[in-house]
Amino acid sequence: MNTAQLECFLAVADFLNFSRAAQHLRLTQPAVSHQVKTLEDELGVALFQRTSKKVRLTQEGHMFLQYAGKILELANVSRAQVKGSFQVRPLRLGIGCRSSADLRLIRPALERMQQEARRVLPLLRLIPMSALDNLLTEGDIQVMFTFQENAPQNSVYRELVRCPVVCVCRNDHPLAQQERVTLEQLKEGGRIAACRPPMCPPSIFAAQGQLVTCKPPEQVMFCESQEVLFTLVETGYAFSVMADFPQLRSSTLRYIPVEGCPPLSFGVSYLQENRSPTLRRFLTLLEETLKIAP
């Protein structure tokens, strides 16, 4: 049973004339007759008595008439509700983040997107880098933050910022008096906090490796996350070597450029087939907000 059958039945029941019902519905008479006949076949009863001069409802037709209008009304209401629900359904954008630093970086872009595109609902995933690769491949996220060195194969990489390599320490650390440092100077700089890939880019890990191998075990603190590393640096237990994001700097820390270490490219990776208008707008907002951030 479909709405076309119900509309034809109700029109014929109203006019008691197939030709006038067809004119009202802007259909041909054979089309109306066909819809009524298929409805009767489905119900297994005759709804009209037809003669060459007149059409009238059968007893079963009168009985069905009590329900047909309600059924059609319910179908139309259901269709409108479903269509309306689809039109206001949020556009979900899965965003993969490596650390809480990524979440801080994207806040200005998310605020802009919330104001400009209220239908877009960001789904933030804060999980290890290796797991983000799988989520991107499987389509659970549409974009992920990464250094170019760590960008997944077969993905499109888009640079957002270039990050100098710096030595980070507290303002009262002995290294804080330096304007620039070399890796040789850092070998004598005291305790170091270090992370391994993929929590840090391979080039940072290589620089840390040159320092770690020259220090006794008690002067090396290996960290399982960037958050742990920052906590140790902020509390004065160690210095570290990392990529510098000026947008995330703390006033209690010193950021000293490390000579001989080229800046690193940081951005996002996505699959070409996932490059939707929503993703394109989000990437544009990221570029705009990161450029104007202090």
Largest sheet, strands/sense/barrel: 5 strands, mixed
The fourth-level CATH homologous superfamily of the largest domain is: Periplasmic binding protein-like II
Mean pLDDT, to the nearest integer, reads 90
Structural class category: alpha/beta
What sequence of helices (H) and strands (E) makes up the elements?
HHHEEHEHEHEEEHEHEHEEEH
CATH class assignment of the largest domain: Alpha Beta
What is the second-level CATH architecture of the largest domain? 3-Layer(aba) Sandwich
What is the 3D shape?
A: rod-shaped
Q: Tally the structural domains.
A: 3
Query: Remind me, CATH topology of the largest domain?
Result: D-Maltodextrin-Binding Protein, domain 2
Low-confidence stretches: none
The fraction of residues assigned to DSSP E strands is 15-25%
Query: Number of DSSP strands?
Result: 12
Strand neighbour order, sheet with most strands: 4-3-5-12-6
Alpha carbon gyration radius: 34 Å
- Give the quaternary arrangement of the chains: single chain
First-to-last CA distance: 64 Å
Number of helices in the DSSP assignment: 10
Helix content: 40-55%
Helices, strands, pairings?
Layout: H1 3-15, H2 18-25, H3 29-43, E1 48-50, E2 55-57, H4 59-87, E3 91-97, H5 100-116, E4 120-126, H6 129-138, E5 143-147, E6 156-163, E7 165-170, H7 183-186, E8 192-194, H8 202-212, E9 220-222, H9 226-234, E10 240-243, E11 253-257, E12 264-270, H10 277-292
Parallel strand pairs: 3-4, 3-5, 8-9
Antiparallel strand pairs: 1-2, 5-12, 6-12, 7-10, 7-11
Helix pairs in contact: 1-2, 1-3, 1-4, 2-3, 5-10
